[in-house]
Amino acid sequence: MPGPGRTSSRPGLARFADRAATGVVEVVDLWRDPERLADDGPWFVVADFDAPARGGRARAWRFAERVDPAELAQEDGDAWRGPEPSCWTSSMDRAAYESAVARVRDEVREGEVYQANVCRVLSAPLVAPDGGEPDAAALGRRLARGNPAPYAGVLHVPASSGVDPVWVVTASPELYLRVAGETVTSGPIKGTAPTPDGLTAKDRAENVMITDLVRNDLQRVCDPGTVEVTDLLAVEPHPGLVHLVSTVTGRLRPGLRGTGALWPALLDATFPPASVSGAPKSSALRIIDALEPVPRGPYCGAIGWVDGDEAVLAVGIRTFWWADGVLRFGTGAGITWGSDPAREWEETELKARRLVGLASGTLEP
To answer: Scanning 74, 153, 209, 251, which has the fewest C-beta atoms within 10 Å of its C-beta?
Structure first.
């Protein structure tokens, strides 16, 4: 491990939750070789929400040097320079988004789906002053001060590394999968309001539906009778809003634990995450593909680390990603029969307001 203040001479850095590393070694395609996650790590994962047919990728980068996460989080001045606030555009304006909500309600009425998540992607041009890549670590530090999150992280492998590049900064509050020995845990979020008093019966029903879907997903990889909801509808505060969060755990089947078969089975059973797709998942994905005009990319996918028989992956919400001179950020809401189109638009605004403000400098940490 490098000493204090030192990092690997190789390019690339990764910090997520309680793991950090520098010096990228290689990248693997998780749709083709998910069993590689059983190899020595640490591996840092970014899986797009979108299916390969829509350009989605799932990749894991292996790093050479483990470091103390606090080392990569140390302040080095405020080097972040974000886009102008007026430059952000949305993949769906308010009218288009509210129309999409109405379309989902039609699908619910017809019995095609109980719930579907509808998202939009905000984007703004951003080029570093030197013409290179923006400073992902600097944005990560800014979000850590202004919007601390349990699954915050930064993954930056520059194009100059010679390895398939990535640029992702997340302040996710949501656990997709935690693997600790024989136990797997998921913590779906459904239900959002500015304060606890704003949470409604619709929010609670939405959370229960998705928690049941997560339970069904985990049953595909766990011993019979071991999957249980250990916490239901917990109110969890985050900067500027509150969420309803449930927790589902199970004991992994013996044939999966500690083997190369684990990650192929886990991803097949649970991806994309239930909370950002809908129920039934297959119907929700069909509706999402028809309604959303642009791919989600890492937003609503999976971001985190895998290291031996331990792993922590978050749902890629409250997440920025940069490529081709454009910074992007996704925001969305779960739509049910009880949804009001105007209220759902406001929920997407609430989820984006603080993070985009921090990235653009209109909100100070």
So the answer is: 74
